[in-house]
Amino acid sequence: MKSNIVSLVNADERQLRIDLAAALRLAARADWHEGVANHFSAAVSPDGRKFLVNPRWKHFSLAKASELLLVDADDPKTMKRPDAPDPSAWSIHSAIHRNLPHARVALHLHPPYATTLACLKDPTIHPIDQVTARFFRRIVYDLRFGGIATGEAEGERIAATIGNHRQVMMGNHGVTTLAPTVAEAFDAMYHLERAARQLVLAYSTGQPLSIMNDDLAEETACEWETYKGAEFSHFAEMKRILDREDPSYAD
Predict the structure, then answer these.
(1) CATH of the domain at 49
(2) What pTM does this model have?
(3) Percent of the chain with pLDDT over 90
């Protein structure tokens, strides 16, 4: 019985590795990454404190499942390892996985349109179409940027600000999506960047925004739940594209 349990755990971690590596590759293809910075993580233990994270300063486009680091949010010696993760990855993701049990997966990026919004004095994603409305009252805004998050205090502050939310707009910084699965976190990031693009383009016309009233925006946001299955299909389809063009992410 014990060997069967171990095999199941290993199989679950293996699939998480494949999915997280796929998300990293897809982020690079979409030009959401920034150089060799930014970081993704996925919890592997029941309490969420042991998690996978991408290796320090490795390009997203070359991510492989087998090369993801397995770390423990409670291990203070992590940054002394020869293969220690990026300092900001450790600061942000260790705090998230220590404090936010609902955040099994966390994707942190500086994609161009969402980061553009994050640089505005008012980075609110106003509901001007059905994609922007997806985030109505469903995203938290962190406007207390404390510099590059290389210290424990900034990571803890970010985690506390996120709370129970699944998306956070990080003022003067970028964005993070959190979810139970890689598929859901990836789909949220995709639509968050699309929503930001739509709003930035609308702002660029110089015309007033046509903002939905609160009732319509809430109704539209709720309707996204009807399409919950599409989040998983979206990610599965994107992995099919990777499998056809370059399946090495799963190595």
Answers:
(1) 3.40.225.10
(2) 0.94
(3) 92
